[in-house]
Amino acid sequence: MKKLIIVSLLSIATSAAFAQEEVFAGKKITETGAIAAAELPQKMAEKTAMPAKVTGTVESVCKAKGCWMKVKTEDGQTMRVTFKDYGFFVPKDIEGKTVVFEGEAKVKTTPVAELQHYAEDAGKSKEEIAKITEAKRELTFVADGVIVKK
Fold it and tell me: pLDDT band at 14, cuts 50/70/90?
């Protein structure tokens, strides 16, 4: 009987491990048609907004709630990805993981107060936060759904 219980528990644990290959957040999306994050700035060209599905590597995540992530784009740059209507979050431990996200890419000017808030969420020191004194024009993304690849 003990062997049967042990085998059953191992079987359940193994099944659960293999079933968790991807984590979905927000709207359920697929990977089909996703472009590389490095290609997005060129696809945007002179547009200020456009719908897109993007794949890339997570550089950092909000340590408070998982309410935003930064994804590497090109030449060491990153793009902040937030989540539509603050309606969902991503795991806080996904740095270095590949993600696919769908929604709207935007070019916007982020105010100093918001940049400082993001720096605080990222765990930056008070000295680093105090050095943020200018608004920043940047590529951002509001995602409807995210897939975190394992």
Answer: very low
pTM: 0.77
Judged against a pLDDT cut of 60, whether residue 112 lies above it is answered with yes
Give the C-alpha distances (Å, rounded to integers) separating 86 from 39, 64, 66, 67: 26, 14, 11, 7
CA distance 16 to 110: 41
pLDDT class of 2 with cuts at 50, 70, 90: low
CA gap 45, 106 in Å, rounded: 11
What are the DSSP E strand ranges found in 1-150? 22-26, 35-36, 49-61, 68-72, 78-83, 98-110, 136-149
The closest of 78, 96, 100 to 145, measured between CA atoms, is: 100
Q: Domains of the chain (ranges plus CATH)? A: 22-149 (2.40.50.140)
